[in-house]
Amino acid sequence: MVEENTNEQDSQLVGLLAQFDDPDSLIAACNQAREAGYKKMDAYTPFPVHGIDPAIGIKRSILPFIVLAVGIGAAFVGIGLQFFANSNYFDGLSPFPGYGFNIGGKPIFSTPANIPVTFEIIVLSSAFAAFFGMWGLNKLPMFSNPLHRISRFKRATNDKFFLMIEEADGQFEYATTEGQLNEWGAVAIEECRQDLTDTKLPRWLTVAGVMVAILLLLPPVMIFRAKGMTERAPRLHFNPDMDWQIKFKSQTVGPVNNEGEPLFEDMRAMRDQVPGTIAFGDLEADSEMFEGIKSDWKPEVTVTTATGSVRTSLGENQEAGGVSAADDLTKYVTSFPEGIEVNEEFLARGQQRFNIYCSACHGYDGNGNGLVNKRAMALNAAGEAGMGTRWTTAKSLHDATVKDSKQNPLGRIFETITHGRNTMGPYGAQITPKDRWAIVAYVKAVQETELKLKSDQEADDSDDSSDNSSEDDSANPRP
Amino acid sequence: MHSTRPAKITSPVTTLSGGHVRTIPIAIIAGAICIGVALALSLGSEFRLKRFMYTYLSAFCFVLSISVGCLFFVTIMHLTRAGWSVTVRRIAELYAMCLVPLFLLFLPILVSVLMGSDIVYEWNVAGWTHHGEAERAAAASLPYNQLPPLEQLKGKFLNSGFFTIRVIAYFAIWGFMAYFFLSNSLKQDESGDKSLTAKMQAYSAPLMILFAATVVFASFDIEMTLSPLWFSTMFPVYFFAGAILSALCTILLTGMYLQRTGRITDEITVDHYHDLGKLMQGFVIFWGYIAFSQFLLIWYANIPEETFWYDLRFVNNGWRGMSIVLLIGHLFIPFFLLMGRGLRRNRTLLAISAIFILVMHWVDHYWLVMPQMDRAAVELSERATGAHPTFTFSGIGIVIDIACALGVVSLFIAIFCGIVRNRPLVPLQDPRLGEALNHEVH
To answer: Which end of chain A has fewer CB atoms < 10 Å from its terminal CB, N or C?
Structure first.
């Protein structure tokens, strides 16, 4: 039964391989082999056969315990890593002090926040432990196995069942074992032999491998060398298109011509707008719409700014940062400019914008008692130095002078929102002109109806017959 | 070893032979007595009927989740064409069928809602957003003039009429699903028609979608709206995780009981219990994962609209202790109890684990439901008298809770026995029965 291609000198017996035709006879043979005292044996089947494990006496794998140990270790590593990385307990003790981040006011070491990372580390480590542990226990990677030299064995992946008893087993005796296998119903028995010919690599391959390994070391060596020394040569530019783009960043030195001379005298990259020109979309010529000032009003001084928009000034009458007593109230428009249609939707928009931008100080009902004001007054009352003591109370929109359309025409309210007034800051940059007019409309509506939103009881929405009753609505959806 | 297992059912008895019929009146009487004791003691307690209704709701949710979990088990087994579970599937089918009579147990709560009472659900009375929770939640983040819309918005969903329609729809859909699977499976017992299995598989996919939708909204309606301003989209998953876990425990314990009393012999092997144990451990972890995910998001965002729900359970009274009991008892202990292969293949240990998890699952629903009564009662009392009664774990209170839970479970057992009648306890002619009988795992 010994196969033809075995040479006693070049090979060593590993074991005897017996072939069976069905799983039941294989299991029966395995049971008998186990009872006969064989320990070093293995079965090979094309599919998982139930009951084969106890039949060949395989012990439970210790892999679960490896995974458990690694998992528990990983839990400590995960928690410890976060404890170390995000703490400030090691300041001065370690060359790597923690970051000590304050995240959302949470404690530096906060158990719930650390659980997801710990969990992930446990999962990853356990998976690695299971995967590589399986490799280790199976002695993988194994590049060759003597069984693969037997052509008959190929059918182990197809339709035949094999039992191999190893020569290393204490019970193994060639003739006895062969006889027993025959007795247990083996269809065929073959020797499994290990090739003993020289397994050394050819010399040239070894040399080539060493050289490649040395060459592979060069890049990291060069990187480490570069880290520790000063380099005078300019850096390499692998992608000049990206490194030198045909553009100029703001606040930098401007372009140069081919001779290296600056193109502009002042050497700045940012250029002023050409006098007398207006950028596309920046023409705000309609002073009624954009300034709240009548278009036929002639200021004493006209200043044409560099951006080209026409700004009006009161000249000598204007005082820095404040309003002049001689403020020319006739210049402000007293009706909404053309293109602004005041309707319910527009007022609702105004209310929404008002609640966002104005209510913080002026309050939702416009009585000047918003949250910022309340806080400032509380600080004032407590006598705490700081913002509170310098606080000027926000104006109530129900104040007589504010309400008076003679002293405060529509255009002036618009101007106040746009440029600010007294201690109130300008909002022109945050709010679009149309929205500013919407706020003006809402402010007028609030003043007109004396709207009190303070509580449901005080809300007076039943006997109001004015046009503005529609927006006196305490049930507005959230902004 | 390989060929020793049968390919067909060999045991003589696969039905309950009458003995369980005698159990039905005993269980009903025991249940009625227990519930009566709980009701009487509740009426004498500080919170009167409210105390009973909340305890009853927590016990009801406990048995409801078992049935719902069994319905899921049946559906997923058809959906995945599982062979191993055929011998235990009938038990799950029978428990799922209990969902129809379980509607009767929900009637006390439904009637209270239809009567316009806020004894259970505080959203059932107009102006509920102005009650304490709303003020606290809203004052923290919203201007007062914007409060009413919340009630208006939520009122469209949370009103007695729509609530009743929804609850009836849930039970109707569940009942239909349970009936579909049980009746077809029983039909197969008679005829052996293999096309019935194909039919159930084909329908299991759309029914699973229907199941998911109903469980999501049922958990919202029945348990989450006890705190009508609180919202968590993770809540239905939490409910589901507990439901499937308790269903697995119940299937396992029922299988062991039936085997012990000789109604089932070789059909269920240690390998089936081993697989159920594996699933149990998986869902213990899933429960912990979901519970923690829900907590972490709310804890991290730290928005008062959401945190007050946990604040109630972590800071007030004895609820903090119960939260810790849940964390350890519902997650850590079962996790290690079910960890090893040897532990999972040991029937005694597995049964102990299953009973322990079921008890913890009841504690879980108690923890979901009862703190809301605490909160509501304190606020009602504050408005009425200025006094601050707080819920405390007293001896009488524990008797109420345990009596009520035992009563509801007794009724559940009576329902189960009524559903079982003379029906076979194993699908006798399922095409995958042979696979299940020869099931082997490692």
So the answer is: N
Higher pLDDT, A323 or B20: B20
pLDDT score of A315: 43
Neighbours of B280 (CB within 10 A): 27
Cα A35 to Cα A25: distance, rounded to the nearest angstrom = 15
> β-strand A41-44 against A188-195: which pairing, if any?
unpaired
CB proximity A49 to B under 8 Å: yes
d(CA A435, CA A431): 6
Please, which pLDDT band fits residue A235 given cuts at 50, 70 and 90? confident
Q: How far apart are CA A265 and CA A403, in angstroms?
A: 54
Give the residue from B260, B243, B269, B343 showing the smallest Cα distance to B84.
Answer: B269
Q: d(Cα A29, Cα A113) in Å, to the nearest integer?
A: 57
Number of residues that this document lists for chain B: 442
Q: How many CB pairs under 8 A join A and B?
A: 55
User: Would the pLDDT of A67 be above 90?
Assistant: yes
Judged by CB atoms closer than 8 Å, whether chains meet at A115 and B442 is answered as no
Q: Answer yes or no: pTM beyond 0.80.
A: no
Per-residue pLDDT, averaged over B166-183, amounts to 97
Q: Token match 């049971």: residue?
A: A31
Cα gap B268→A25, rounded to integer Å: 27
Which of B357, B215, B348 lies closest to B283, judged by CA? Answer: B357
> What ipTM was reported for this prediction?
0.77
A102 interfaces chain B, CB cutoff of 8 Å: no
pLDDT grade, residue B432 (50/70/90)?
A: very high
In the structure encoding, which two tokens stand for residue A368, read together? Answer: 């000047």
CA A401 to CA A186: how far, in whole Å? 113
Cα(A264)–Cα(A254) distance, rounded to whole angstroms? Answer: 7
Region for B113 from its dihedrals, namely left if φ exceeds 0, alpha if ψ lies in -120 to 50, beta otherwise? alpha
Strands (E), B305-419: none
Three-state secondary-structure class, residue B162: helix
Contact A104 B149 (CB under 8 A): no
Are A104 and B302 a contacting pair at CB < 8 A?
A: yes
Residues of A in Cβ contact (< 8 Å) with B339: 68
| Structure tokens belonging to residue A112 | 């719930």
Q: Which two tokens stand for residue A466?
A: 């004015």
What b-and-e string marks burial along A436-454, b requiring 16 or more CB atoms within 10 Å of the CB? Answer: bbbbbbbbbbbbebebbbe
pLDDT for residue B168 is more than 90 = yes
The reported pLDDT for the residue numbered B11 is: 63
More confident residue, A265 or A186: A186
Closest chain A residue to B340, measured at CA: A64
Q: How many CB atoms lie within 10 A of CB B382?
A: 13
Q: What confidence tier does B215 reach under pLDDT thresholds 50, 70, 90?
A: very high
Q: Note the pLDDT of residue B145.
A: 46
Contacts of B295 in chain A (CB under 8 A): 112
| Euclidean distance between CA atoms B400 and B36, whole angstroms | 10
User: What is chain A's length?
Assistant: 479
Of A54, A68, A364, the CB nearest to B145: A364
Q: How confident is the model at residue A474 (pLDDT cuts 50, 70, 90)?
A: very low
In chain B, which residues have their Cβ closer than 8 Å to the Cβ of A364? 143, 145
DSSP B25-91: HHHHHHHHHHHHHHHHHHHTSTTHHHHHHHHHHHHHHHHHHHHHHHHHHHHHHHHTT-STTHHHHHH
Q: Tokens representing A367?
A: 């009585």
Radius of gyration of the CA atoms of chain B, in A: 23
The edge-to-edge listing of strands for the beta sheet with A41-44 is: A41-44, A161-166, A11-20, A188-195
Q: How far apart are CA B69 and CA B74, in angstroms?
A: 9
